[in-house]
Amino acid sequence: MGRLSVKKERPIYHLGLILLLALVFISTTPAYCPARAVPPPSVLLDVKDKGKVKPRTLVLPYAFATDSMGMVVGLGAGLTGQYQKQLTIMGTGLVSTNGTGIGVAALNNLRPFPQGRLYIDMLVSPGKYTKQRIYTAGEPGLLLHTAGNNESDSEDYHEGRGWDNWAALHFRFLLPLAQEKDTSLPAYTLERGFPVKGNYGGKGANPLENGIILFEISPFWRDQGYKLKNRGDESFRTNGITWSLVRHNSDFPANPTYGSNQCLSISQDYGWSDSTSSYTFWELGFSKFISLGPAPGFRQRVLALNFWTADTPSWQEIETSRGISASHRPSPFRGARLGGFYRLKGFPNGRFNSKSAAYGALELRLTPESNPLGKIKLLKFLNIDWWQFVGFGQVGRVAAEYNFEPLTSDLRWDFGLRLRLMATKAVVRLDMGISEEGMAVWAMVGNPFKGKQSENEVLI
Predict the structure, then answer these.
(1) What is the pLDDT of residues 177-214, one digit of tens each?
(2) How would you classify the pairing of strands 352-354 and 426-435?
(3) Which of 281, 244, 224 is nearest to 450 (CA)?
(4) Is 127 helix (H, G, I), strand (E, B) or coil?
(5) What's CA 304's distance to the chain center, in Å?
(6) 268-298 residue pLDDT tens
């Protein structure tokens, strides 16, 4: 494509640039991404900066349109490397023509003790929605025969005015093992967005010798509700603690060429305060990255595989005068759920939810050698290092029991395409998934494989 002059571009090209700017910013703000897909705490250096951390800031207004919110305008800001070289602070606020309003603030990788191994993430978001959709019977605990399960109809949901407020803390302790035995902050030196020096992993399976291991304690709180006709307000509330052990064992966690990731997580709602129900929920995630080597025209070719499974051992079902009721279960927006941002992207967010779940994905990731976006003058401030296109396929289902047969029969599936790029040293992506129920598009940040659920998923 060569070096382009903005003055010579056609009007449709201007529109493309505007959409790209909106994608980059709304993807790098937490309003549109579950932030727990982030890599481990690290410092990203560029060879051009000669070993020095270069603080980066971004302030950007944006606008876009969705079926659920109408026309949206917002303003976001973010900075990294300003007070601590690994620290990122972000925030955004938006309003829409149908009365929706969302605010989000996030602080990632705060290091409270110099040279310490403890890192803290904080996230908070109030939200008011005009069209909020939940695939559930609408009454906490009540199970209709179809709502949200694998055989449910795509129209089996409630949609209306509502609210979604959440807050979370993540205490992440970098264990003194393997690659981080003698250091407490991973660092990578990048050239055109690829590592040329750093804490490489993925070359062995022994967790005592390879990988970055984190122990995480994550207190959470969320209150999501909506207005039902003739019944007033109905809400689902949860609070508790998630305990996780996460291992990143790849050459570069932000964009792996080879290696693997593992995550074991247990979430416990203890029934404190106004929680809808106490419950215990566990999940296990595994990812594998296989390098296919470079090829003419491509810097990187990777085959990526992902598997995730989950269960709610506390789940109990009883018959009542109103039907089958389940107690000690997560709220529909948490727990064993599929559809949306990460798993079964061709379905609406939270389309399936039940006691148990299993999911698998296969992706082919191709990173071209050329980088025409990085040569566009209007986008220079984004420092786009590379772009990548991906083809993916996914299968999975939820079930009322955790057994091999129900979790491997009558699987739901989808396929799609993804555009990813590294802008201002953050990996952002635009996913398009297609399923038997339609098509969905998601603007996100980070990798598509997530080892565990998180409460901070905003419905849009």
Answers:
(1) 988 888 899 889 999 999 998 777 888 888 888 999 99
(2) unpaired
(3) 244
(4) strand
(5) 17
(6) 999 998 899 999 999 999 999 999 998 999 9
How many domains does the chain fold into?
1
CA 428 to chain centre: 11
Query: 146 phi and psi, to 5 degrees?
Result: -115, -30
Q: Length of the chain in residues, anyone? A: 460
Distances (CA, A) of 207 to 181, 204, 243, 248, 263: 12, 8, 19, 10, 13
Joined together, the tokens standing for residue 74 give 């917002």
Angle at 29 between CA 71 and CA 157, to 5 degrees: 55
DSSP 363-379: EEEEEES--GGGG-GGG
Q: Would residue 457 count as lying in a domain?
A: no
Instruction: Give the span between the Cα atoms of 333 and 162, in whole angstroms.
Output: 14
CATH of the domain at 376: 2.40.160
pTM over 0.85: yes
Query: Which amino acid appears at position 209 of this protein?
Result: E
What the block records as the tokens of 394 is 């996914």
Residue 322 forms part of a structural domain = yes
